Amino acid sequence: MLVVQHPATAIPVTRAGRSAFDIKVIRPYFGAVMVRIRGALDEESASQLEAVLATWAHRKFPVLVLDLSEVDLLDAAGLAALVDIHVRTQREVTTLRVVTGDNRVVRRALADSGLDHALNVSPLPAGWERATEIPD
Q1: Cα distances (angstroms) measured from residue 4 to each of 55, 94, 132
Q2: pLDDT category, 45, cuts 50, 70, 90?
Q3: Which DSSP string do the residues of the chain spell out, in sequence order?
Q4: pLDDT in the model for residue 37
Q5: 115, 83 contact by CB (below 8 A)
Q6: Nearest Cα to 89, choosing from 98, 101, 99, 76?
Q7: In this predicted structure, which of 23-27, 71-75, 77-81, 106-110 has the lowest mean pLDDT?
Q8: What are phi and psi of 20, to 5 degrees?
Q9: Predicted confidence (pLDDT) per residue in 83-109, tens digit
Q10: What is the gyration radius of the CA atoms in the chain, in angstroms?
Q11: CA distances in angstroms from 35 to 17, 28, 41, 117, 125, listed in the order given
Q12: Span 115-131, mean pLDDT?
């Protein structure tokens, strides 16, 4: 279930047996946008992630950071969504950074699929930890 709210707010989705899934859009002072994802990035949530990103596509940010450090499941549908996002950012001449932190689940899924070499996997850029939500 997708709850339509202002893009700066989290979109929680609770599913039985799994942690709550939410997406938070953050725009720090770099003129870029960060999308923090928490929970399972699977078939159901991947479409929600793409819908949230479509909301921001017209703004043409030079950098898109996907923070996957709190993702606890990344399946084939989630990996396919990452590939789609990668293709879109290349087409739009946007830099995509994928932040994994110390998340072994995400790092293993990216390594097993070979996407760790195709995607720009990086530590969190300096200053982003102080990022605040986009004001209303």
Answers
A1: 11, 26, 21
A2: very high
A3: -PPP--TTS---B--TTSPPBEEEEE--TTS-EEEEEEEEESHHHHHHHHHHHHHHHTT--SEEEEEEEEEEEE-HHHHHHHHHHHHHHHHTT-EEEEE-TT-HHHHHHHHHHTHHHHS-EEPPPTTGGG--BPP-
A4: 93
A5: yes
A6: 98
A7: 23-27
A8: -60, 140
A9: 999 998 888 888 888 999 889 999 999
A10: 14
A11: 24, 11, 13, 21, 13
A12: 74
Percent of the chain with pLDDT over 70: 71
Burial of 125 (0-12, 13-18, 19+ CB in 10 A): middle
- For residues 38 and 20, the answer to whether their CB atoms sit within 8 Å is yes
Q: How far apart are CA 54 and CA 16, in angstroms?
A: 27
Residue 25's pLDDT is: 85
Q: Is 3 left (phi over 0), alpha (psi -120 to 50) or beta?
A: beta
**Quick check: 16 pLDDT over 90?**
no
Residues 6+ apart with CB under 8 A from 112: none
Dihedral angle, C-alpha 28, 31, 111, 44, nearest 10 °: 70
